[in-house]
Amino acid sequence: MGNFFLLQVLVAVCSLSVITTMFNKRILGFPQAIGVPIVSAVLVFILQWSASLLNGSEFITINIHHIEEAVKRIDFYDFLINGVICFILTASALKFQVSDLKNYWRQIGILASLALGLCAVFFAGLMFGFQWLSGHIIPIGVLLLLGAGLGATDPIGIKGVLSSVKAPHHLMIKLEGESLFNDAVCIALFMTILGVIKGSEFSVLGMLKTLGYEVLVAGMIGWLFGQLVIRVLAGKHEMESLILTTAFLASGSYLVALYAHASAPIACVVGGLIVGNKWHDIRSEDEIHEINHFWHAIEGVINAFLFTLIGLELFILDLSVSLIFGGILAFVCLHIARFFGNFVSFALFPQLKKYSYNGSLTILSWGGVRGGISLALILSVANVPQLQPYSAYLVGYTFIVVLLSGVVCGLGLPNVMNAFYHNPNAPTTGFAGWYQRVVNHFNRKGFKYVIGEDEYGNEVISRYQPAPKIIQDDPCAVGIAVPQPSVDADGHDELKDPKSF
Fold first, then answer.
1. Cβ atoms 146, 119 nearer than 8 A
2. What count of other Cβ atoms lies within 10 Å of the Cβ of residue 141?
């Protein structure tokens, strides 16, 4: 009859994905990137609790060990890094405008490279101090590896969060652009540190040469595939062949880059950018809309599978109180390190920061949601002999950080946005109101912006002007309307260069 393992896993994951997505949509109402892993993790807890409760029952038994073995046999790294991520990145790149990249390439480049490296260094230093105090010392190299793996902002999680937030265009471009391009640097840095841990020699020049080769060769591969696909799309097509052509763009460029030992994520992103910004000249808007609609649906299916699998990884974790506490602290250290990494990186480029919007770096630092890429990288090295003594910490900390990143950063991003961009519907009562007041302290300058549109429908960001105060010292005197100051210490009411930051 053959081996039905793959079909069994597919049926199980499909069933769980339906349950988690429906429960999240109808009950929780969270973005999919946040709600589905939470529901999936809760289902795992319920299943484990039920198995222990029914232990010894004559009628119903749940063999939790068989489920754990099945989960362990799922190669999360191959599923994501060597599988579906090419479709996710290409689908995002097809809709990303090159004009936006031209305006913000410096900021995106800094966030995706220098800031990521500094974040890994700061994180390793903070966590080394904690592990030393707790008596469970982990070598600094292993913590650097963990910091590099956690440095990748997840494009799936970012899109899920941004879809539920009314954010200014410039912030959405930077967050999404960073998530598209920092995977290459993250994987290169991760593999470099892993090589050092295994005993390879390390040199900064060698790492830069390797990174340069990966980026340049990947860019060439992506450009070649993009040009080829544009020419193929120019002919007569059925809708099915148009979709298959874009699928070839994603998988073909990614596979060739892997064989060339180049950055596969960069290759498919470059190819997607070229096609997405030229196919309006050769295909009708209805056809492009249909293709994008297809890829949007595929993204949803892949995301449901991926986030369900993230929750199922709880089966292979041996959680303890100390591990949970360490994971929570790792989450705090990671985001402190991200704040420091971003601020130090842009401090080195004062011209970029000179006319920045109030709160841009704070929002960008908060909005770096982690996801499946971090978990896939750590799971792929958990059985490396040099890392086996620390594998429980690596996998446990990563799982908790990914879960908390979605819950805390993803759900808290609207509140952080409200601290700098005026929202008349911001919460004022209950826990949500209290949390909003706490987050408002991030805004040290005290003024906010308001997002509007000009007569052509273009986004306009201006300084928010609150209602005037009424000063009336004498109860019998007539009140005097005094407008709130809308000019900062430098005398600027609006930014000189809105494209800067």
1. no
2. 16
Residue 489 class from Cβ within 10 Å (0-12 exposed, 13-18 middle, 19+ buried)?
Answer: exposed
Candidates 443, 447, 444, 449; CA nearest to 488 is 447
**Which among 364, 179, 190, 154 is positioned nearest to 269, based on CA atoms?**
179
3-state secondary structure 333-346: HHHHHHHHHHHHHH
How far out from the chain centre does Cα 119 lie?
Answer: 15
The answer to pTM > 0.85 is no
Helices (H), 277-390: 285-312, 321-347, 350-353, 360-366, 372-381
The dihedral through the CA atoms of 245, 154, 357, 435 has a sign that is positive
- Which residues lie closer than 8 Å to 137 by C-beta, 6 or more apart? 128, 131
What domains appear along the chain, each with residue ranges and CATH number? 73-421 (1.20.1530.20), 431-493 (no CATH)
The CA-CA-CA angle for residues 328, 359, 449, to 5°, reads 135
On whether the CB atoms of residues 377 and 368 are closer than 8 A, the answer is no
Please state, in angstroms and rounded to a whole number, the distance separating the CA atoms of residues 219 and 270.
6
Cβ pair 174, 226 in contact under 8 A: no
Question: Where do runs of H (alpha helix) occur along 150-203?
Answer: 155-162, 169-198
**Can you give the pLDDT of all 501 residues of the chain as single tens digits?**
456 666 766 777 777 778 888 887 888 777 776 777 777 777 777 776 666 665 655 555 555 566 666 666 777 777 777 778 888 888 888 888 887 788 888 888 888 888 888 999 999 999 999 888 888 888 888 899 999 888 877 766 666 666 666 778 888 888 888 888 887 778 778 888 888 888 777 677 777 777 788 888 999 999 999 999 998 888 777 888 888 899 999 999 999 999 998 888 889 889 999 998 888 888 888 888 888 888 878 877 777 777 777 777 766 677 778 888 988 999 999 989 999 998 898 888 877 766 678 888 888 888 777 777 788 888 888 778 888 888 888 888 888 888 888 778 877 888 888 888 888 888 888 888 888 888 888 888 888 888 877 777 677 788 887 766 555 555 555 554 544 444 555 444 445 555 556
For 411-446, the three-class secondary structure string (H helix, E strand, C coil) is: HHHHHHHHHHECCCCCCCCHHHHHHHHHHHHHCCCC
3-class SS of residue 104 = helix
